[in-house]
Amino acid sequence: MGDLAETFALMKERKKQSKEKRLEKANPEGWSQHTIYHWYRYINGKKINYYPSTGLVIIGKKRHNINSKYMRNLLGGEQ
Fold first, then answer.
1. What pLDDT is stored for residue 70 in this prediction?
2. DSSP string covering the chain, please?
């Protein structure tokens, strides 16, 4: 393998481990699950899609991180 191939393989493995850690750390309380990688809930009539392995939250067309100040306020400090 070339140098770049090894580098990209290491990057891929690190990202995979990072996603696994976030998924293990995520709290499923209050969330319904489509799959282990896609959770959702409704707050104030809005559907909130949450991807715990990446920390991505989608509300309508807007994207947020689960740890953002906006999400902490919306969820009331649950996460």
1. 94
2. --HHHHHHHHHHHHHHHHHHHHHHH---TT-EEEETTEEEEEETTEEEEEETTTTEEEETTEEEETTSHHHHHHHTT--
β partners of residue 46: 43
With a CB cutoff of 8 Å and minimum separation 6, the contacts of 74 are: 43, 48
* Cα–Cα nearest to 50, from 16, 17, 13, 79: 79
Structural domains counted in the chain? 1
In angstroms, rounded to a whole number, what is the distance separating the alpha carbons of residues 76 and 43? 11
Residues in the chain, how many?
79
Q: What is the pLDDT of residues 1-23, one digit of tens each?
A: 578 999 999 999 999 999 999 99
Residues 35, 49, 22, 65: what is their CA dihedral angle, to the nearest 10 degrees?
170
